[in-house]
């Protein structure tokens, strides 16, 4: 049986890593930028890898790179090999030094700016050799394709291929600025909400209606509308504080504004449905020590935030 050497012309872990990212990204220039190497180096890695294994692994067009049938099988094997190599290196280091390396974390933007960034500061004070690459977005990105290890998500999840770590539920409430409520009057029943401007989240499905739960368990569906639609939680926070209308919001987003009186709770006997808070981990990364450390730390700290009811 022929043995593939790990020399310049052989597969090599660097070439495998390049191949894996190209397979996931489908774009050579994006992978070159991500890895900090030239696109010619990416192309050379791929050519050398295909020459070493003796089959075409990728099908290239001017717009996209896709896996061949052989490439798809090779990609799966490469993932397993690279995971074992990284785990072996970490286990070898563990007896003599602290975990080190990078973890890529994706987080919903408002939660990331207001709370998670400071949590990462605390994490890195405890683990100074771990680098965290924080990506803030409200889009449901493909974790593998974007090279993300962990994602902190709000809302129901549809991706069953990821490892799930449930953190808890984020409690929500209706709020408005005192000046706005004084000028318009305070609603006494959910049916009154049709007379008020509502700050609508344009990137949330079904945001043109509110599902409210009464203190006695009754559930109501109330249509709402407003002249201002935003796609970012921090923009909604500013609009609410500025008295541009009322709206549903997470407690962690506005707890300080409620504490200092810049916002008030509206219809306190009725609450919007809570939202699940979850950590999604790429399965191949779940056993990596630095990833486990960050997941455990985030889960514990996020569960302490205002309005988060731990699982």
UniProtKB/TrEMBL annotation:
Taxonomic superkingdom: Bacteria
InterPro entries attached to this UniProt entry: LysR-type_TF_proteobact-type, LysR_HTH_N, LysR_subst-bd, WH-like_DNA-bd_sf, WH_DNA-bd_sf
This protein's record includes keyword DNA-binding: yes
Record keyword Amino-acid biosynthesis present: no
Matching CDD domains: PBP2_CrgA_like
Keywords: DNA-binding, Transcription, Transcription regulation
Ranges for domain HTH lysR-type: 11-68
Alphabetized PANTHER family for the sequence: HTH-TYPE TRANSCRIPTIONAL REGULATOR (PTHR30537), TRANSCRIPTIONAL REGULATOR (PTHR30537:SF80)
Protein family: Belongs to the LysR transcriptional regulatory family.
Protein name, as recorded: LysR family transcriptional regulator protein
Species for this entry: Rhizobium phaseoli
């Amino acid at each position: 049986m022929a043995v593939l050497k790990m020399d310049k012309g052989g597969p090599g872990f660097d070439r495998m890593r390049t191949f894996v990212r190209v397979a996931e990204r489908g774009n050579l220039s994006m992978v070159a930028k991500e890895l900090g190497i030239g696109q010619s180096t990416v192309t050379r890695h791929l050519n050398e890898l295909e020459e070493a294994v003796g089959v075409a692994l990728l099908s290239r067009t001017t717009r996209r790179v896709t896996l061949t049938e052989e490439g798809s099988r090779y990609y799966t094997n490469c993932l397993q090999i690279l995971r074992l190599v990284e785990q072996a290196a970490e286990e070898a280091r563990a007896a003599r030094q602290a975990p080190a390396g990078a973890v890529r974390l994706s987080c919903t933007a408002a939660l990331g700016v207001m709370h998670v960034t400071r949590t990462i500061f605390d994490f890195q004070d405890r683990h100074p050799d771990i680098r965290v690459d924080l990506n803030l977005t409200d889009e449901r990105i493909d974790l593998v394709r974007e090279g993300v290890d962990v994602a902190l998500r709000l809302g129901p999840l549809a991706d069953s291929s990821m490892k799930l770590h449930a953190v808890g539920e984020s409690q929500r409430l209706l709020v408005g600025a005192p000046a706005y409520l004084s000028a318009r009057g305070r609603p006494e029943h959910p049916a009154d909400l049709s007379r008020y401007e509502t700050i609508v989240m344009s990137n949330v499905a079904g945001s043109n209606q509110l599902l409210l739960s009464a203190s006695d368990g009754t559930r109501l569906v109330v249509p709402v509308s407003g002249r201002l639609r935003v796609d970012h939680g921090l923009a909604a926070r500013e609009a609410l504080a500025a008295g541009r209308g009322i709206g549903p919001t997470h407690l962690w987003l506005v707890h300080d504004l409620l504490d200092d009186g810049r916002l008030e709770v509206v219809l306190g006997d009725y609450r919007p449905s809570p939202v699940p808070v979850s950590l999604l981990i790429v399965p191949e990364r779940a056993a990596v020590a630095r990833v486990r450390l960050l997941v455990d730390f985030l889960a514990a700290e996020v569960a302490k935030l205002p309005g988060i009811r731990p699982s």
